Known about the structure:
elongated; mainly alpha
Amino acid sequence: xxxxxxxxxxxxxxxxxxxxxxxxxxxxxxxxxxxxxxxxxxxxxxxxxxxxxxxxxxxxxxxxxxxxxxxx
Length: 72
């Protein structure tokens, strides 16, 4: 995963950062669904992994919330 460095988020309101990450997870999940619809499995996989990455940043790596199943 490509985590932001602490210095990248320094001074940023934690609630806004959380909302941004949740929105990014949703955007990547929607791109995942779109790629599946277009039968582009490689892109779908990449978008799904990015969605999971952002969910992990919000909810913690071991949380069940990291699963994209919560969006379905």
